[in-house]
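User: Hello! My lab partner asked me to get a predicted holo structure for this protein. The small molecule is flavin mononucleotide, SMILES included with the sequence. Please write out the structure tokens.
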Amino acid sequence: MFDFSKLKHPIIQAPMAGGINTPEMVSAAINAGAVGSYGFAYSSPGKISEDINAARNLRNAETQGALNCNFFVFLEKIKYSTQDLDGPLDALRSLDFVGKLELEIPKPPFFLDLETQLEPIWMEPPEILSFHFGVPDKEIISKAHAFDVSVGITATSLEEARRVEQSGADFIVAQGFEAGGHRGIHDPDGDDDKLKTLELIQRLSSSSKLPLVAAGGIMNRNQLIEIIEAGAIAVQMGTVFLTCAESGASEAYKKMLLDQKHRSTVFTQAFSGRPARAIENEFVTLMEGQALLPFPLQNKITASFRKYASKLENPEYQSLWAGVNYPECRKETVAELIERMSWKERS
Ligand SMILES: Cc1cc2nc3c(=O)[nH]c(=O)nc-3n(C[C@H](O)[C@H](O)[C@H](O)COP(=O)(O)O)c2cc1C
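Assistant: Hello! Below are the structure tokens for the protein in complex with flavin mononucleotide.
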């Protein structure tokens, strides 16, 4: 089991799929003595190898930090037939911005095979492997342990935490309702307890046997101390890293986080088909109540105009994943951010 107490800082720079976690960001977090993570959910094995090597090359030999590689556990059966495409396509094409842009029609396989994605991981095993949206096959967890890799799995409720405990995983990433990005709920059609991060940690610390990593709304040192005192061994922070110099977020996205402090964040399924917390923008508003495809098919049909919006530096049609406390985002480097979170340096 990875020993979190060996880190200089009890911080995991969150995995953030979609180009945010550059090798510069990941290695800077590792070199500062925290955990640097890659969100590899949509990455091919070739890209995974390339990114792991790039972070390795930038990593200081004497660092107390560690690498985490993160993947999604996709639902095996996606309820979908080609007729289901008409409504969602019409909804997108009715938007002026999308208009006549070519949209990618999703075809099977709808996502990359997890075993294939994991092949480069076994070649150069990181210290940690983490999973979002559910529990991977037992064989994957056993294989990770055989390679001395610790496994963390997201849970948003007490029931999900019990599933994680029974899976043989080593720690729970307890994700509260404030968190930015995709809600890690295992069954997207199931009930959501909507527990906030502190309450989730308080409840789990008295019932769970596994170490807890707290995720959601943590942006400053006081919040970190409060959550550690409540029973977490570390925090996983995503939003606060988005505006770091090393972040791969688009300029328009960074500008929204830094300058548009008055906007609210909402859960939307309109970008990907799964609920994710994002800054409310024109696309989110216009898509309310519209027909959508299941995850990750909706993610595919919205990909081309999201990319186009990023090229045009138009934030209204990009997925601006952000936690509720995004107004605390600053322009800083990863090293500066981790340093200002420092509460009790460990030797
Ligand atoms: C832009 C973005 C992308 C994310 N992508 C992933 C991901 O690929 N895998 C994952 O486990 N969590 C992902 N998350 C969720 C984070 O792991 C974490 O739960 C969240 O960022 C914590 O809340 P905070 O954003 O308020 O710090 C993402 C979060 C953001 C903001």
